[in-house]
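Example 4.3 (complexes with small molecules)
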Amino acid sequence: MMKFKLASLIFSTTLITFPLMAQEQQQITLCGKLAQGEIIKGKATGIKTARINGANHQVAPDGNFIFAFPRDQKAEAELLLTKEDGEAASHILHIAPSQWDIQNLKGVPQRKVTPSKEDEAAILSERTLVRGALKGDRLETYWQKGFIEPVKGRISGYFGGQRIMNGKKMNPHSGTDIAAPIGTPIKASGDGIVTLTAPNTFYSGNVVIIDHGHGLQTIYAHMNKIYVKQGQSVKQGEIIGEVGKTGRVTGPHLHWGASLRNTRFNPYSLLKLNKNNDSCFNL
Ligand SMILES: [Zn+2]
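Answer. The structure with zinc ion bound is encoded below.
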């Protein structure tokens, strides 16, 4: 009787295990919109690195990874996934173009549009601080929790907009502007570590950067007051400061930016991350 039981146990285990092994083909799932300026979440089991547009992205132990397409992403991008054993698989992704508006801004302080020689040091110092913080590529995956809008208000300038300031063509807009009165509380969009708090920078004014792990950061500019300190952990929804009109502005608003491994993308695409399974598909 005992023998029979043991034999049947082994037999049933084999039956269950065998089909599972047969199914163990690599499945790659992407979630998000394959379009310019969007963030994408991917999942693939047993991979070590995910390379997109020639840059390696971290892969969490559960196989999740994120990447973003810049505003001017070409129509095709290569996603190269490398397994632990070194075997690599290349996937060509077709990226849809996005529409960008033209933003004609008048009444910008002229010094902020055509800076003088004396402003060069301040501009360089701001660039160094911001670029330094955007180089962060932490192992933590705070981003897996998802994101919320830091301030609710009228969008006064969309990501990617071609800006013309006082008649001069400028660089495209690197974030989204949300108009709100001075003093409106600004929430941390997601959990993370504050990696930059810089007062009175030339363009961004009082600016905060939060690092959400895997090279993803959110940027909060033109603040009236900053309530957090560099190195501090923040939770999603925690008040990090107040809306203001510091730096290059025409009125009070929050400039909300997002960067993934130095690729600026539309911060509003973060709101769908980890929330919308409808946007997921298998490669
Ligand atoms: Zn802005």
